[in-house]
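User: Before I run my own analysis I want an independent prediction to cross-check against. Here's the chain; please return only the structure tokens and, at the end, one sentence I can use as a sanity check.
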Amino acid sequence: MLYFLPQSFTMLQTHDSGLEPERNRQPRKILRLLDISCSALGLLTAVAGWQSADAQTFKQASNTELQSICTNVQRSDGPTGTGAELSTICKQMASNLNGAVTASSGVGTLSQPSSFLISQQQLKDAQTLKLTKQRPSGSADSITASWGENFSTFLTAGATALHHRNNDYEQGYNASVPSVTLGGSYRIAGNLESGLAFNYSNSNASYTSGGGFNTDSYTPLLFVNYLPFDNAFANLSLGYTRQNQTTNRIAIAGISNTTGLNVTGNTKANLNANQYSLNFLSGYDFALENITIGPRLGVNTRQWEMNSYQEATNTGLELRYNNQYQTSVQSTFGLFASSAHSFNFGVLIPQISASWVHEYENNSRLVNAQFVQAAPGTGSFSFQTETPARNWAALDLGFSLVLQKGMQAFANLSTVQGNRNFESYGGSLGVRFGW
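Assistant: Structure tokens:
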């Protein structure tokens, strides 16, 4: 349609270019309009059909593809080369192809957030606190400007409980995410500091319908802190993450509404992904006696790329997935507040921050898959991932204890709320030494 529409229009223009009587031109104009209208209607119909065909859940798309494969297996002139296990499944269901056939319980690992970003945010807050310039007497940050010389090291360890809500497009799951960050920073000038950090996190998740996944994430991180003028700061961090993941998916093919026949098995796979992130955070602080309060504004970008992979077991329902990509651009706008309380052993600084996060770029994606044991030349199918949330809140409550000789200990509690797909609760403990 896209090829022939311009060609037909050109032919009509050529035929109309002659000097014909007006009574002959009017019918041609009407025919031209009808031709264009029909072509446009056909194009719109094709586009609408393409959209509705693509916007399928995993169960719908895999069900349709499995029925097509099994129908061909039963035909004497059908394609050959279907794997033994998949052929057996099709033969078992030969008389029930009109029943409810499902190839799997779904996929739930595709939209998981990057848990290490929580540790990164805590790292940035700690770095910013350290670099804040001398406040008026009694300010929450007045002591932190003097501890340490040019070099400091820090260690943060914690864990996050992550809950993904079940929906038609992706499975629900619960994950525990322990994480540790180790790093060091060097003060280049009075208002400029740079540093390196390394974060490791492990996501161990269980699907609500059975199975799960385990992901190891390794993240080197480069950051720069800058104080452009009094009471203001800007932080920039650049990170790369290597993710190594194992999956255990419950695959089911059965007739639940007729004979009760079903075939169930665990399909397993190993896959790898790369992620590139760029995060910016800035703010301005107002000192009111022993209280510091100020706005925070940030931008976080992320490019996630997963290599193609296939499940390696032999149930007959294993799938092969094409490469996948995901881009995220988020803005954060929030408010930070802290207060300083002096004791004989040091200064205790409770802190609280609340941010509104908005997602601009990340959208529902189409994932292309194919049955591994399907006959050569068999087509693939596509299914849609869930639609990511556009707005949610990130809350953080922390305590810092500034001691003598350039030592600081801190603790944080963090949560993500208002995200229709995810909810998380996390905590961490850390220590920093300066010299």
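Sanity check: The CA atoms of residues 4 and 10 lie 10 Å apart.
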